[in-house]
Amino acid sequence: MELKRLNQLGEWNPQLFRELKGQLTTRNLFLGVTISFVCQIFLLLLGSEMVGDSTNSWYVRWESVFIVLNWILPFLLLTCGIYLLMSDLGKEEHRGTLNFIRLSPQSSQSILTGKMLGVPAVLYLGIILALPLHFGSALAGDFPLGWLLEIYLLWGVACGLFYSSAFLMTLLYGAKNGIQALAWSGSLLGFIAGAVYISFINFIFDQSGWSNGLSNWYWFSLPVGSDPQLIFLWMLITLSVATYWIWQSVNRIFRNPNSTLVSKSQSYWLVASIQVWLLGFCVPPLNEFSSDSQIFLDSQVVLGTLTLFVFNPVGFISLGGVLSPRPQALRDWARYRHTSHFTDKGLLNRSLIQDLMWGEKSPALVAIAINFLLTTAIWFPWMVWRLGQVESSQDFTAPSALLGLLLTLNVILIYVAIAQVMVFMSRWKQSAWIVGTVGVLVGGLLAIWVTMGMSLLDMPFLWLLSPLPIVAFTHASATTLFLGFLTQLGILGVLTLQLTRQFRKLGESTSKGLLTQSASLPSRALK
Q: Which residues cross the membrane (predicted)?
């Protein structure tokens, strides 16, 4: 019977069967069970005290036991689980066995799921053996059963998010860094993030008036901060969506280490989901407000403005590095476009646009512009509704915001185009060039201001060329804004022409090289 079940497990997920076979040895099982029970007994002794009566009985402070386990169990899951997974995957990468696993008929999701469930199997066993004590101490301490089940669910979702992030970190940097150093770094990050996460969970499920500090937390007009059930649903949805996108990136990198983290089509859904999530924080409640409602409304407008004109530009510049293929992929794309110029002249423009929108190997400029326009469409109703209707934004209306977004889009495309032009001059990745380019340009602007002894707002024209052109709106005249817009278009046009020439030159040189090699093969055969 047991052999039949093992065979069924091996057929369902061979990688899981392989990991369990390697982890669940007699020694590991003995250590896991022993350590779990010894720690539980030690915790019970610490949480117990003798009652000073004639019976000399022991009294267990179940609430204290529950609180301690509420910290220890998720900490072990997150920190130790991350270390085990990163260490195991890193060793497979360095030994070269990961490439053999990639060649197996299993899907990448099956392989990664098998590792996620199998590598920390002994850790899972120890945690499962401690759950009865945690469950019993919660019931003895009159902790609501429904809340306890929700806590378990949040632990599980957090494990999925943290473990997926650990896989992604290992696949991206495992081949370039030491295995143990990377695993310890990931475990440390998990410890820090886990401390914040566990503290927040314990805070929202605290029965002693926890809602006082969250009463102003609204998301799409829902009073999330006033109800632990709404917070639970919000956290569950947020973490599940985040886990989904990280899992998609892990699967892409696992199948092809040279691919981008997300495809262009995935980036549109990713950006839309992030923008909708951010927009929810800026939608005020629909009911009546208290006496300080104006301050609350102003703070939401400030948050939305910062998101649109500060956080989003940084995010889109980073997205340019994520979506930009590697130089070799760009060379292949240039050769393909050069060939299609002779074969599909009638469909050239249409096919080129489709390739720039959806192609895996095409440059990222068009995809960045589409993502930015998608963001503008998502935020446009909020801009019309909120901007100009509260005291802090009387002079910053929806038309001004749209103009600011247009200037911001131009700047983002300029920086991404500069990085794309420069990437062919080096073997560095596009992401490094984009970060370096932005750093140098921003540092250059600051150096100009410092050298000339001016305030940062004395030359609004320079702000129109920085990643934050919205700052120029407070001091720039209409003429300055118009000249800045024309300057942006001129720079972007020159960079686009340079990119076009580079790709045309790459396509021609690569095609000539291939033709030369193919022509030399018959002559060598005759010799």
A: 28-46, 66-86, 117-140, 152-174, 181-205, 229-247, 268-286, 301-323, 364-382, 402-425, 432-452, 472-495
The residue among 295, 197, 176, 186 whose CA lies nearest residue 239 is 197
In the prediction, which pLDDT does 100 show? 84
Q: Quick check: 495 and 410 in contact, CB under 8 A?
A: no
- Phi, psi dihedral angles at 519 (to 5 degrees): -75, -30
Q: Cα–chain-centroid distance for residue 482?
A: 36
Residue 525 has pLDDT above 50, yes or no: no
CA-nearest of 162, 148, 179 to 82 is: 162
Crossing angle for the helix pair 228-255 and 179-204, nearest 10 degrees?
A: 160
Which one, of 14, 184, 151, 190, lies nearest residue 69 by Cα? 151
Task: Please give the angle made by the CA atoms of 326, 331 and 332, to the nearest 5 degrees.
Answer: 100
Question: Angle at Cα 368 formed by Cα 425 and Cα 240, nearest 5°?
Answer: 115
Q: Cα separation of 304 and 286, whole Å?
A: 17
Residue 289 DSSP one-character state:
-
In tens, the pLDDT along 300-352 reads 888 888 899 889 998 998 898 888 888 788 888 887 776 665 445 544 467 78
Token pair for residue 337? 């476009």
The residue with tokens 């004590």 is 133
The long-range contacts involving 232-236, CB below 8 angstroms and separated by at least 24 positions, are 232/150, 232/154, 232/204, 235/154, 235/157, 236/153, 236/154, 236/157
Q: Is the Cβ–Cβ distance between 520 and 514 less than 8 Å?
A: no
Residue 70 burial class via C-beta count within 10 angstroms: exposed 0-12, middle 13-18, buried 19 and up = buried
CA distance 77 to 89: 17
How buried is 451 (Cβ within 10 angstroms: 0-12 exposed, 13-18 middle, 19+ buried)? Answer: exposed
Distance from C-alpha of 324 to C-alpha of 431, rounded to nearest angstrom: 8
8 Å CB contact between 19 and 115: yes
| Strand spans (E) along 208-364 | none
Q: Are 116 and 23 in contact (CB under 8 A)?
A: no
Give the H or E element holding residue 37: helix 26-46
Say what the pTM is.
Answer: 0.87
**Neighbouring C-alpha atoms within 13 Å toward the C-beta of 458:** 10
Tracing tokens 């947020």 back to the chain, one arrives at: 238
226 touches 212 (CB < 8 A): no
Q: Are residues 464 and 313 in contact, defined by beta-carbon separation less than 8 angstroms?
A: no
- For 87-135, the pLDDT digits (tens) are 999 888 888 888 888 888 888 899 999 999 999 999 999 999 999 999 9
